[in-house]
Amino acid sequence: MSHLVIIDGHAIAHRAYHSIPPLSHNGQPVNALYGFYSMILSSIDQLKPDYLLVCLDSPGPTFRNAEFLGYRAKRKPSDHDLTSQLPLLPQTLKSVGIPAIAMGGFEADDLIATLTKKAQKKKFINQITIITGDKDLMQLINKKVSLFVPIRGLSETKTYDAAGVLEKLGVTPSQVIDLKALMGDMSDSYPGVTGIGPKTATDLLTKYQNLDNIYVHLNEIGDSVRERLIKDKNNAYLSKKLATLICNIPLKFRFRSARLNQDKFLGLLSLFEEYNFKSLIGRLKKKLAINEIKDKPKINSNQASLF
Description:
Layout: E1 2-8, H1 9-19, E2 24-25, E3 28-29, H2 31-47, E4 51-55, H3 63-67, H4 80-83, H5 88-96, E5 100-101, H6 108-119, E6 125-131, E7 145-151, E8 156-160, H7 162-169, H8 176-183, H9 198-208, H10 211-216, H11 223-231, H12 233-243, H13 262-274, H14 278-288
Helix pairs in contact: 1-2, 2-14, 8-9, 8-12, 13-14
């Protein structure tokens, strides 16, 4: 039985960019790239995956923009030094044979949700860990699926299971989308119910389990909260739709292509040497107990699956 790790690529790259001091290679900023691969090494060391793949966002609008014109409208544009590095992720991942998956119209979160659902049906995969800084993915957690979240930059991490979600948010993984429906989400700019914050939302969900049941029992809820729920019912259900990850994207993916092997480790080493990532070279050589490697890796093009 095997362990699959799925990395939320752009989420980790964004966190790396803001956590690591400026770093360049031939005039190209590479601190986000460096931090991204540092996290890959950390995940290999700590999680010991048998399979590893990366999901990436695609440029352009998604179906959520069509559903709600204000979706993510308040986000500030990313720094040019960061955006200039993002194309390097699929390029470098392909070069080392690690699958990098993206699909126009869908966010990486939706691809992760779809692949997580597919992976749970594979008999040879019994554990799935998602590496992300996005707590929306907590809705995917179950006995087989956990989240591995970097905190304080990239130097510390926390693993979330169902008990961890309850401790962090006050709800179960299956209630995360209902929590978002009630509270909204400032980061993604969807509305929720005006005036309902974490305490009221978690109290409602503890008592009534889900959004539908809350509206069934409106007559039992205090006047002030009931009025807010009635006034913003459409926004609540819109927010729930926006928060719900898509698990049925028509992706064809061969999970065995994500298996970690010696060629991929050698490919990583060659990549780190190309970018002069000295610290990563040292970490990888120590991990593999390699003192000196003269032969360049031979990457099988069939190992990479880039959508």
